Amino acid sequence: KQEVTQIPAALSVPEGENLVLNCSFTDSAIYNLQWFRQDPGKGLTSLLLIQSSQREQTSGRLNASLDKSSGRSTLYIAASQPGDSATYLCAVEGGKLIFGQGTELSVKP
Amino acid sequence: DTGVSQDPRHKITKRGQNVTFRCDPISEHNRLYWYRQTLGQGPEFLTYFQNEAQLEKSRLLSDRFSAERPKGSFSTLEIQRTEQGDSAMYLCASSFSRGANEKLFFGSGTQLSVL
After folding, report:
1. Using 50, 70 and 90 to split pLDDT, how confident is the model at B102?
2. Which of A23, A38, B33, B105 could make an SS bond with B48 (beta carbons 3.0 to 4.6 A apart)?
3. Torsion, Cα of A18, A20, A21, A22 (10° steps)
4. Kind of pairing, strands A56-59 and A62-67?
5. What average pLDDT does chain B have?
6. Could you say which DSSP state residue B107 is in?
7. Residue B20 near residue B35, CB atoms below 8 Å
8. Is B50 near chain A, with CB under 8 Å?
C-alpha cells in the first residue's frame, strides 16, 4: 500500500529565504508525482507534475525534483514571499493520486 | 468560469440527515474524482468516474455514500444518515485522461459540518 509522508509538518521562515520541502513515498511504481498548493478553506492548485521518467521540473521560483529509486521528492522555493504562505501537498499517481499530509508554510514579512 | 465548481460551499446538517453535493467538472474533462479532507490531513481518495462509469471506490466509501455521474458531465455525492465523523471538506477534481500523466484540477470543495 502506497504511503506518502511529508516533512516538516509546518515551517516558518522570514521573507527572502530559500527553503526545501520534503516528500517521501513507499512504492516506487508510480506514473508521476505532483505538488499542489492549498490556501486555507480552499481547493488545491497544481504547481508541478514530474513524470516518472523525469528528474525535475521548474516553474518560476519553484523547482521540484524526483528520485524514484529512493522514493523521495523535494520542492525548492527560492526567495520566499509572504504570498507563498499556504499548505503544500505532494501526491503520487499510481492509478489514483495518493496525498501526503502536507507542509504548512508561513513566510513572515 | 471554466474551472471545477462545487455546490454548496458549506453545508451544516444534523446527525441522521441526508446531504447531497454537486460537482461540475471542466467541460471537456472525462474523468471526475471525489476526495475527502479532514483538518491537517491530505485529501483521501473516495471514488472516480471515467465518463459515466464509476471505475473505483475506496473502502472509505461506506454503504451510506453514493456517487453518480449520470450523463458523464456533473456528478453528485450523497451521504445518507450523516454521522459526526462525516464532517470534512469534500473535494471534487477533474481531468482529461490522456494516459498516465494527467493533471488534476480541483474545485474549492464543500465543507460539511454534522452537528
Report:
1. confident
2. B33
3. 180
4. antiparallel
5. 92
6. -
7. no
8. no
Local confidence band at B99 (pLDDT 50, 70, 90 cut-offs)? low
CA distance B45 to A75: 23
Per-residue pLDDT tens over the stretch A61-109: 999 999 999 999 999 999 999 999 999 999 998 878 899 999 999 999 9
Inter-chain residue contact A89 with B42, CB threshold 8 Å: yes
Q: Quick one: A79 exposed, middle or buried, by C-beta within 10 A (0-12, 13-18, 19+)?
A: exposed
Mutate to test the interface with B, among A49, A97, A104 (most CBs of B within 10 A): A97
Q: In this predicted structure, what is the pLDDT of residue B72?
A: 84
- Sign of the torsion angle spanned by Cα atoms B20, B107, B61, B50: positive
Residues of A in contact with B91 (CB under 8 A): 43-44
Phi-psi region of B28 (alpha: psi -120 to 50; beta: other; left: phi over 0): alpha
Between the alpha carbon of residue A96 and those of residues A5, A81, B82, B92, the distances in Å are 17, 32, 26, 14
Q: Does B74 touch chain A (CB under 8 A)?
A: no
Q: How far apart are CA B4 and CA B27, in angstroms?
A: 9
Alpha carbon B75 to its chain centroid, in Å, reads 8
Q: For chain B, give the percent of residues with pLDDT over 70.
A: 97
Q: Give tens-digit pLDDT for B74-89.
A: 999 999 999 999 999 9
Mark out the alpha helices in chain A (DSSP H runs): none
| Average pLDDT of the segment spanning A11-36 | 95
